[in-house]
Amino acid sequence: MTEKFSRWDVVDYLKSDEDMALYLDACIVEDPGDGSLVRAGLGDIARAKGISQLARDTGLATEGLYQALSAEGNPEFSTVMKVIKALGFRLHAEANHA
Question: Hey, where are the domains in the chain?
């Protein structure tokens, strides 16, 4: 008997705005410093919310948004901020007392 497995996708688990905010926060905390995890997290959240609607909300082209938030993407900070704002999130800082 052969077992079939489906590909695990975090998007299947991003059901609420709170889930998405917590996921993005975890991506920010765990990012290695190059923005790759933040970009991937924003891409996952964009897929969960609907990339077409997000493109309209940000004023960015859908294809450009896909490209900016892809693994190979390198979005400008202004694009990241537009996406965060359109998703209804706020970016904030706190002191790291390590």
Answer: 10-86
